[in-house]
Amino acid sequence: MQFYSPSFIHGDGINYQTMEQALDKFWKRYPRLRYKTKVKSWKSKGNFIIAETITSIIGLPSSNQDKLALNATIHSRQTFMRDRITHQEILSEHTEVTSGIKPPKVDIKLPQQVKVGMSYYFDAIVQEPLGNNYLLGKVMQEPVKLPQYLKPSSMNLESLKAGGLFKIGRAPDTPGNYWVSAVIVRSDGMTIVTRRLRVIK
Q: Whole-prediction pTM value?
């Protein structure tokens, strides 16, 4: 946390203390973590530097109880003052968590932003032929909030008759950031894909 200001504020409502808790839990869940950050753009504004970055994160399967692997890409905007991050906002986010011998390869189609109350299409397509395998799955939309950072939500799976999930969602009436997640389970593995959806007026 040496790169964060004690007065740090995150666009998702997280402060310095809760960010520290979230990062500590994240590293414990994925102890074999590798990440790389590239600066996309930056500019000076008074005493501040505003930078947009792309961070790629890979969490290798380990001895954690779920033996989960992580692959994520996060596009964010940071405000720096005196080499410390004072504010951060996530602009886009794609996270994939997998487990099993051969987790399904899933292609996601979701708009990056929609207007309040509008319908949108969400497709989670399994790339491999279905064959004799059965699929279970579920889609969930939830607001980006601190409890979900610290404890992911659970969901009840349903039997899928096609090679994926094909849904029409409805944007909430309240602007903000929402996670749209798809869970696909097959006999030889599981894939959970999450995208961030921005709901605007």
A: 0.88
